[in-house]
Amino acid sequence: xxxxxxxxxxxxxxxxxxxxxxxxxxxxxxxxxxxxxxxxxxxxxxxxxxxxxxxxxxxxxxxxxxxxxxxxxxxxxxxxxxxxxxxxxxxxxxxxxxxxxxxxxxxxxxxxxxxxxxxxxxxxxxxxxxxxxxxxxxxxxxxxxxxxxxxxxxxxxxxxxxxxxxxxxxxxxxxxxxxxxxxxxxxxxxxxxxxxx
Length: 197
Prior knowledge:
By secondary structure, the chain is of the alpha+beta class. Helix content is 25%, strand content 32%. The chain is built from 4 helices and 11 strands. Helix 1 (5-17) crosses helix 3 (36-54). The chain is globular and about 40 Å long.
């Protein structure tokens, strides 16, 4: 059973206002961990409310009443390509000379498996920030002290389908992350870290 859009809208508003989640909202969060459709709708709702708030199109007290997002303008920073057992990262213009977007193979993975099989990259400016693959799961984790989290998201284009996922705070790692289950993605699916406009 899926969550109601009003519940997802309210949860998105709480995240944007930095409020502590109540028991029912925590239950929604747990449900989303195993429900791709509800998580997708939550991400869209969050991005729309965030965009409206930043552009002063929506007063903060109205956050929970914002309509569902459809598309959010963005520019690509980093492209993530998935191959057999490994990831390949491509930094796009004009970010190629920005040190914080330089990700290198994590030492333990590179030494143990060889760079041709790297599935874990570490930021050159933040040891905590990484992009990694665990089976068909792709995880992007960023440290807010080095990255402008409020301006970033992960955008996925697979055929005619496009989805944008905001970075959410993980209390266990104390990082902001996006976790993607790519099992059903096509080989041509495009995953990008983007800057929202």
